[in-house]
Amino acid sequence: MQQIAPITQVDAMVAAAAQVAGTSDFGTEEFRPALEQLALAVTREAGLPPESLASLRTRFVGTLVLRARVVEFVRRHPEILDVALPAPIFIVGLPRTGTTLLHNLLSGHPDLRAPRLWEMRAIVPSGDDLAAWEARAVAEAEAMVAFIAQRAPDLARIHPINAGWPDECSWLFRQGFATMVHSFSFHIPAFVEWMMETDMEPYYRFYRMQLQVLAWRYPGCRFVLKDPCHLWHLPVLRKVFPDATIVSLHRRVDEALPSLASLCAALQASEGATLDAHALGGYCTDLVERALFPLAGLRRAVGSRGFFDVRYPDLVAQPRETLARICAFASCAGDDAALDSAMAWLSTNRQHAAGRHVYTLEQFGLTASDIDQRFRRYHEQYLAAPAQDVSGTSPAPASAAPASSSAPSFVADVSGTSHGSPRGSDAPAPSLEERFQSALAQVQTLSVAPSNSVLLELYGLYKQATEGDVTGPAPSAFDLKGRAKHKAWSGRRGMGHDQARQAYIDLVDALVSADRARR
Q1: Over 80: is that where the pLDDT of 278 sits?
Q2: N or C: which end of the chain has fewer CB within 10 A?
Q3: In this model, does residue 175 exceed pLDDT 90?
């Protein structure tokens, strides 16, 4: 009996996939390091039994087969690469913040199209009989959904899925193996660290090509796409889709975090992992911090144009009004007929239809006071109740305003106290340079050194703030540290001195706030 190579032997998996696909062309090679890192992490950190690793290897080979078929299909239809993707709408936000609800509502809008689960699992048609291929693809997706339901019975209450429903476009990132969705399904801190330090542009380019395949199959569509994982990669999302509208959902972290931990528990248990609920709570907190702490700086770095912020309570309480505001911002039809079409999903898909999702902070070793301390800046900036105008109607969201007023600025003075106004009625507000120098001093007082990825981000912002755009070639390939620093600096190219100073201040403020919460 032939012995199957372990999951960490990537070359063996690639060879097996090539044999099934009938081609050894997998397109660009960025998938290899991602697959190598993912395979190592699940083997060393996820706590999976041998049979789960064997099953996962089979799934990875199947993913490679699909990637090869996508590459081959585009090779035979090169016109796909010229297909336009007009002004897509991306729904982003932490998991458990209403992104699925909003995606399903907007998918019913007559001007928009959301890819269905079965479409993203199949991508490219095969054979001459398209009807037969589609029926086969739908049946395979339904079988997968049934298998998941059997293996993870709690998932239906947390995140119900259906082969014919819109779903997260993380399915299109799986062909590159670089997606944060794996960090929900497995306890893999090393892979998370690798993702945070990796240039995601090649993976987003392959993702874009798959969307072009779908747009080639369905001409004239304008996509509405949803994936919480985009939140960790906003700059590259904007770079690859410069005309996109990004709708950002916001919910209190003490509500979203335990729900995320409960989702991760269900997913990881279904993979055969032995769970430590308190360790999972800390792991999920780290994931959330990595998304939210740089958010203010990232939003300034990429600009406020095209961002539309939505509070989860507003979406739940006033879904129709929220949809109308989004449609106005994204230049979609906002008449009654269009809104009726979008709202139709709610009439047959009420919350808790499969049972109530029950979770608590305490079961994951978390406390409300600790969460409030860690994420107070985020709550103040994105979840403060919107002001009412004299007519009692909420004004347009901050993201629709000019960049200079896109969000309140909660800066820290030398004592570290957050505020949005001068330090006294007679005292002038500190200048940007004063706050920058204060941040330089504060970062030296942290009780725990930041991770390498954060240190590199600080370095890049500091160099851009003090020297401007990087000059000269990158260091030798043998100088790994020098190349990493050069890449961090060059990634800020074009950012103005003041903009870089403010982004540095925002990042240090977040680090100081988190540091205090740990003490």
Answers
A1: yes
A2: N
A3: yes
- Cα separation of 420 and 413, whole Å? 10
| pLDDT tier at 352, thresholds 50, 70, 90 | very low
Helical H runs in 293-431? 295-302, 312-317, 319-329, 336-348, 368-374, 376-382
Residue showing tokens 């109308």: 324
Reduced to 3 states (helix: H, G, I; strand: E, B; else coil), residue 140 is helix
Is the torsion defined by CA of 294, 513, 511, 497 positive or negative? positive
Alpha-carbon distance 13 to 5, whole Å? 8
Q: HEC profile for 447-494? A: CCCCCHHHHHHHHHHHHHHHHCCCCCCCCCCCCHHHHHHHHHHHCCCC
How far apart CA 513 and CA 517 sit, in angstroms, is 6
C-alpha span between 306 and 245 (Å, rounded): 5
Give how far Cα 511 sits from Cα of 117, 439, 442, 496, Å: 38, 10, 9, 23
In angstroms, the CA 348 to CA 354 distance is 12
- The four Cα atoms 496, 502, 503, 508 give a dihedral, to 10 degrees, of 150
Average pLDDT over residues 29-38: 96
Q: What DSSP state is assigned to residue 396? A: P
Q: Tens digit of pLDDT for each residue in 441-478?
A: 787 777 777 777 788 888 888 889 988 888 878 876 55
CA distance 95 to 228: 6
Residue 103 corresponds to which tokens in the numbers above?
């995606």
The pLDDT of residue 42 is: 96
481 pLDDT more than 50: yes
If you search the block for the tokens 């055969």, which residue do you land on? 272
Q: What share of the chain is helix, strand, coil (3-state, %, to 5)?
A: 60, 5, 35
283-327 tens-digit pLDDT: 999 999 989 987 777 777 666 678 999 999 999 999 999 999 999
**CB count in 10 Å sphere of residue 470:** 19
- Is the pTM higher than 0.85? no
**How far, in Å, CA of 173 to CA of 188, rounded?**
18
Residue 258, sorted as left (phi over 0), alpha (psi -120 to 50) or beta, turns out to be: alpha
| pLDDT tens, residue by residue, 396-427 | 333 333 333 233 322 222 223 333 333 344 44
For residue 400, give every residue at least 6 positions away whose Cβ sits within 8 Å of its Cβ, in sequence order, or none.
Answer: 308, 329
